[in-house]
Design a protein that fits this description.
440 residues, GMP Synthetase, Chain A, domain 3, disordered N terminus, ANL_N_sf, EC 6.2.1.3
């Protein structure tokens, strides 16, 4: 970082060669010449006032739009999803100069003929607003979170320095439209100088194929994907595997360690705070803060102060996560304050119930709600939505038998529905409204 015009700037460098492409498109590698030409061409197309709304599918198109917007001193708007109702709401409430949708993305044709290589460095003012993100909506209505270039690039640099990363491509099963995917599937490979991929595979075999085809060294994913990959038993022992967006349950972590002979690196953070802490469960189940992060828990809730926190909160954010602080550097997560409810006068943790449900035989994914009950002894009851394997033949009665002795009577779900999948976002979060709709 250095100073230019009295404002600090950061330099980003991009490069490709005959032996290492800049990125991997859906059909062929991407050269620096092609990427630079696309970025500069789109920079000239951004006219008028407003920000750049990105709602295209691929990571390559996303990268072109993102960098062009930053070079034009514009922020990008990253919608919480790509439903037309959500996009219409954004268009009516935020000024938009140009929209990068699927039709726009189709104009970016990657050709193997474009093989011009070399290096390209750009300077970006750190104080500029870089993105306007939306929270997941898992606990209510999504909120807009502005992040500066300083927030994002300081975070990427902290990740680069904090771990030993392979000098090989990064594959991600999470899209860059949320902070986890943006930071780890784009900004991290940018500061590492390694290729990234246009595709965001979802099915386990597609993940395996992309890792193999690109010679990837790092996999960015979520707990549910790692659980699915375990059933395929791939040889990922050479990969650095990162997990975030939800807590990785201890059983999946243990099975992965046994199968792949190395632990998954877990990251704890949020849209508001950026990365906060990390852990590998094989060595320490507690979370350890990143060096640039300061923590306190005077009220029992985690307070985060760091250069990754949006200026909206002046660099310090009060989370809704209950913690037990072990040392200045380490803490245990006890669940969200808003996941604890009282049923019949007893405190019940919904997150803990979900975790217990996922350990039941045949259960792949689970989500629970506390709903009002009109009974003499209980004012609330638990409802559960489950995804189960085809061979499990799980019924509500069999589930309740498994839960006896594991959960208290008031914690055992009174209503259970079985669904093909839970309506999680692409980053693994489950908006509360979508969960409620399953029971209608």
């Amino acid at each position: 970082m250095r100073r230019a015009s009295e404002h600090p700037v950061a330099s980003l460098s991009f490069a490709s060669s005959n032996s290492r492409p800049l990125a991997y498109g859906a059909d062929c590698p991407v050269s620096l010449q092609h990427f630079r030409a696309d970025v500069l061409r789109f920079t000239e197309q951004i006219q008028g006032d407003g920000d750049v709304l990105i709602c295209c599918d691929g990571r390559y198109g996303f990268s072109v739009a993102l960098l062009a917007a930053w070079l034009s001193t514009r922020a990008v708007i990253l919608p919480p999803n790509r439903l037309e109702s959500s996009l219409a709401h954004i268009r009516s409430h935020l000024p938009i100069a140009i929209e990068c949708d699927r039709r726009w993305e189709e104009t970016l044709k990657i050709s193997p003929v474009d093989s011009g290589h070399g290096e390209w460095s750009i300077d970006l003012p750190l104080q500029n607003t870089a993105v306007r993100l939306f929270t997941s909506g898992s606990t209510g209505t999504p909120c807009i979170i502005p992040k500066s270039l300083g927030n994002l690039l300081h975070e990427a640099e902290a990740l680069r320095q904090g771990f030993v990363w392979p000098e090989a491509p990064v594959v991600a099963t999470v899209p860059p439209h949320h902070l986890y995917g943006l930071t780890f599937s784009l900004l991290l490979p940018w500061v590492l100088g390694v290729p990234w991929t246009d595709q965001t595979p979802f099915y386990p075999q597609d993940v395996i194929n992309l890792v193999t085809d690109t010679g990837a060294g790092t996999l960015i994913s979520i707990p549910l994907q790692y659980k699915a990959l375990l059933r395929e038993q791939p040889d990922f022992s050479h990969l650095t595997c990162v997990s975030a967006a939800a807590v990785l349950d201890s059983e999946t972590a243990r099975h992965w360690q046994q199968q792949q002979t190395r632990a998954i690196l877990e990251i704890y953070g949020s849209t508001e705070t950026g990365v906060v802490a990390h852990r590998c469960q094989d060595s320490d189940p507690a979370w350890r803060r990143f060096d640039a992060v300061s923590l306190s828990a005077n009220t029992g809730l985690l307070q985060v102060t760091s250069p990754f926190v949006s200026e909206k909160w002046k660099g310090s954010f009060q989370t809704a996560d209950r913690v037990k602080q072990l040392t200045e550097d380490r803490f245990q997560l006890l669940g969200r304050a808003d996941s604890v409810v009282k049923i019949g006068g007893k405190r019940v943790c919904l997150a803990a119930i979900e975790q217990k449900l996922t350990t039941c035989r045949g259960v792949i994914d689970a989500a629970v709600l506390a709903v009002s009950a009109d009974g003499p002894l209980r004012d609330k009851m638990i409802w559960a939505a489950l995804v189960v394997s085809d061979e499990a033949a799980l019924t509500t009665e069999r589930l309740r038998k498994q839960l006896q002795g594991v959960l208290d009577g008031i914690e055992i779900p009174k209503r259970v529905i079985f669904v093909d999948k839970l309506p999680r976002t692409s980053s693994g979060k489950l908006p509360r409204k979508c969960l409620i709709n399953l029971f209608k």
